[in-house]
Design goal:
With about 475 residues, the chain is an alpha/beta fold. Helices cover about 30% and strands about 20% of the residues. The chain binds zinc ion (ZN).
């Protein structure tokens, strides 16, 4: 005789003496289910029609395969097989009895959710009791927080410390032209509470740091990573692993996006995927590389989707999967992610047991601090203005990319994108003074270093780049 284990779902346990699992003998799935009913006759009318057919809202699985894809009731069983009975469950029945009933307004507001058996009243109440932290109220955080608020996630925390800038409006749909100059979080709270007054918005108006991350993340059920820099990304990951919280990841670059869910309790973490960050000068930021404005909308909405699924324990989360999206090709690809058995953070024997200095780890300067320019000679915007007006003005080399050149540039400059510089040094005259510039002074600092290493002596970097030039010399220059 073949011995199987039948799993009884919660709604039917009352008809099987409260048992979750029952050992049942039978050579086929059909025989197993009928034998089960022999043991617990009260199950009969819940599983079978009066005509003796299995009811069509009852699904039967053999070892995680739906028997409809096998040989249905005739599927043979083997010793040790697990037969699971999975009825369609009407959401809300009997669940969450302890929380107050939904108000009339809530019943109307969330009616399209309530109609979904997968959400229902119980699911909606669960959302209303949930707390989600969105790190970064920018391109990704905008759509994510809007949809989470609309869905009725009870508490939404936002971490950001920027003010709304005109250049944000191409993609950060939380904000309007009217809001330019105001703190993002203040505007975000008005917008989210305007959308759904039943949602509480918690503001964390400071940069997320190792010193405050654990405290800020701790009260939340799920953390959404909407950051735009590596130090904060690693910090969010590490704090989530240490606190045992899911980290809903999204990132964007030009026309391409990535999304995943990192939950070290059930799968890999971000460190398993990328143990170390790329060198700071290898990966340009959105401010340098540009980003297709709709892209963060798509990726952010995927993050909102994964967040609500996690909160409701619905469907298949993106745990252990990296979803890649290409807006130009309009396609999605999926890669399998595995837990790194040697991960410094989430392996059974972690070597890192707390938060570290992420700016140092990523090799970038702390937010707001000026890079030391690795000791290259610098010129201030004021000095450059005076030298340009002199009888022997320096040669100006712009090392940005052509699209940036089209937005703003200094008159008389020569465009030599950073990557082309090693092959185009012959265009520079060694006898003449050379000033190199970029947007913020970081890339040009590296280019200045390169030219010095190649033997150029009269090379200086424009301190603070065009952003500083716009601030100190020419306010009409567009800052991007
Ligand atoms: Zn890991």
């Amino acid at each position: 005789m073949t011995r199987t284990t039948v799993k009884i779902p919660t709604p039917l346990r009352g008809f099987a003496d409260g048992r979750a699992e029952v050992p049942v003998d039978g050579e086929t799935v059909d025989a197993v289910v009928r034998e089960l009913v022999q043991q617990f006759p009260k199950l009969q009318k819940h599983l079978f029609t009066p005509g003796g057919e299995l009811r069509n809202f009852v699904s039967v699985y053999l070892n995680e395969e739906d028997i409809r894809h096998l040989q249905r009731g005739a599927t043979p069983t083997r010793d040790g097989d697990v037969v699971a009975i999975v009825p369609a469950i009407a959401g809300g029945a009997g669940a969450a009895a302890s929380s107050p009933p939904l108000s009339r307004d809530q019943l109307v507001r969330y009616s399209r959710h309530l109609l979904l058996p997968e959400v229902g009243v119980a699911g909606q109440k669960k959302l209303l009791r949930s707390k989600v932290l969105v790190v970064g109220a920018g391109g990704l955080g905008s759509p994510t927080s809007l949809y989470l608020a609309a869905a009725g996630v009870g508490e939404i925390g936002l971490v950001d410390f920027d003010a709304v800038d005109v250049s944000n409006l191409q993609r950060q749909v939380l904000y309007t032209t009217h809001d330019v100059g105001r703190p993002k979080l203040e505007v975000a709270r008005e917008r989210l509470e305007g959308l759904n007054p039943g949602v509480k918005v918690n503001l964390h108006p400071a940069p997320l740091k190792s010193a405050n991350a654990m405290e800020i993340l701790r009260p939340y059920d799920v953390v959404v990573d909407g950051t735009d820099n590596f130090p904060t990304r690693y910090l969010v990951n590490d704090a989530c692993v240490l606190l045992g919280k899911p980290n809903v990841y999204g990132s964007i670059y030009r026309f391409e996006g990535q999304a995943s869910v990192f939950d070290a309790r059930r799968g890999p973490c971000y460190r398993c995927l990328y143990p170390e960050p790329p060198p700071a000068d290898l990966v340009p930021s959105c401010a340098e590389a540009g980003v297709f404005g709709i892209l963060p909308g798509i990726v952010g909405i995927m993050q909102a989707t994964e967040t609500v699924k996690l909160l409701l324990d619905l469907g298949e989360p993106l745990i252990g999967r990296l979803l890649l999206f290409d807006a130009l090709a309009m396609n999605f690809r999926e890669l399998k992610l595995r837990k790194n058995p040697d991960c410094v953070l989430c392996s059974p024997k972690p070597t890192q047991k707390g938060l570290i200095d992420y700016e140092q780890f990523c090799g970038v300067p702390a937010a707001g601090s000026q890079r030391s320019s690795s000791g290259v000679p610098e010129i201030t915007p004021e000095e450059l203005r005076d030298e340009l007006a002199s009888a022997d003005p320096p040669m100006l080399v712009d090392v940005r990319d052509p699209p940036e050149w089209d937005i703003a540039r200094l008159p008389s400059a020569t465009l030599i994108p950073r990557g082309e510089l090693p092959n185009r040094v012959s265009e520079l005259t060694r006898a003449r003074q050379v000033v190199v510039y970029c947007r913020s002074g970081q890339r040009s600092s590296q280019s200045t270093r390169l030219l010095l290493d190649l033997g150029f002596q009269n090379v200086r970097n424009l301190k603070g780049g065009l952003l500083a030039w716009a601030d100190h010399i020419d306010p009409s220059m567009p800052k991007y």
